[in-house]
Hints:
With 158 residues, the protein is mostly helical. It has helices at 16-40, 42-55, 64-71, 74-99, 103-126, 130-156. It has 6 helices and no strands.
Amino acid sequence: xxxxxxxxxxxxxxxxxxxxxxxxxxxxxxxxxxxxxxxxxxxxxxxxxxxxxxxxxxxxxxxxxxxxxxxxxxxxxxxxxxxxxxxxxxxxxxxxxxxxxxxxxxxxxxxxxxxxxxxxxxxxxxxxxxxxxxxxxxxxxxxxxxxxxxxxxxxxxx
Length: 158
């Protein structure tokens, strides 16, 4: 049995370019956030947390915000920026692969979008409203488009 050659035509895989643009936007935002975090450093973050503690008349020695304040240091900021940079680069790589209709990118995108679904459902339970429902709908649509692409490729490979 001979295999059919894969058709790289994006029209053969509807939705991949749209998902690629979404992933590219997420990747660019994460890279920009990481760059901004590295540029501003820990001091503006510490100032913002101090402002919240004063604004809401919170105990400056106990609670979540003082604990957060104690964790904000240059090392933590560099670690957070590195994590955001890695996240952003992964999404940019995925976007490139989806734009070029690569099967590995469909698998990667489907898996990563599916990982968000339990958190989306938790967000709906905790904060029901149109923003949480919109995020869930978008992630379900992404999973559906990418799973459909994977299924079609698998079926055409037979």
